[in-house]
Amino acid sequence: MVDDLHWWSIVLAGSLATHSLIPHQKLDPDMWADASTSWGIGLILGDCWAAWQLKEGWKSSGRDIGWAESVAFKLSILWAVHAGFCDATLTVRGDNMGMI
Question: What is the pTM of this model?
Answer without folding.
Answer: 0.74
